[in-house]
Design a protein that fits this description.
Elements (H helix, E strand, L loop, with lengths): L2 H17 L3 H12 L5 H13 L3 H14 L4 H13 L3 H14 L4 H13 L3 H14 L4 H13 L3
Helix pairs in contact: 1-2, 1-3, 2-3, 3-4, 3-5, 4-5, 5-6, 6-7, 7-8, 8-9
Length: 157
């Protein structure tokens, strides 16, 4: 078995553990991999674990390590945007969500996240535009419909 195959096998094990919310098991596998290789997947998984623990700075650090290897990885960029937003760094999350949209503009949830970041900085026009773009891609997105109503309420319209 090659080193690449071994890493893939270990990453699959970590992803499975993470998806089953066995975070300590996923973390153990990822830290073992990172002790010998700056693996972007291991960094991304650890970043997601830290985000779930509310350790946003650590989460962002791991995710940025992953992006140093694969700077345009959509999934990792989404995680970074979510970590920044969770940290309430909405200006930076807007930059990241806009970058994702420039790479791939048909992910409705990214438009939703961008809209919410714009709403948090009270840029309601851009928030509405983002939420409406989300709805154009996913017309039955209930959360998006709700957020549009909330913005109109905030604007007293």
């Amino acid at each position: 078995m090659t080193k690449t195959d071994l890493y893939k096998e270990q990453i699959t094990k970590a992803i499975n553990a993470f998806s089953q919310k066995k975070f300590s098991e996923a973390e153990e596998v990822c830290l073992k991999i990172l002790s010998v290789n700056n693996n972007p997947d291991a960094n991304h998984i650890l970043g997601c674990i830290r985000m779930s623990e509310g350790k946003y700075d650590e989460s962002i650090s791991y995710i940025n390590n992953s992006l140093s290897v694969n700077p345009d990885d959509i999934g990792t960029l989404i995680s970074l945007g979510c970590a920044l937003s969770s940290k309430k760094d909405y200006e930076q999350s807007i930059i990241i969500f806009k970058k994702i949209i420039s790479l791939k503009n048909d992910i409705s949830q990214v438009h939703f996240y961008l809209g919410e970041s714009y709403r948090q900085v009270q840029n309601f026009d851009k928030a509405l535009k983002s939420f409406k773009e989300c709805l154009s891609l996913t017309p039955d997105h209930i959360g998006c419909q709700l957020m549009i109503g909330i913005i109109y309420e905030e604007l007293k319209e």
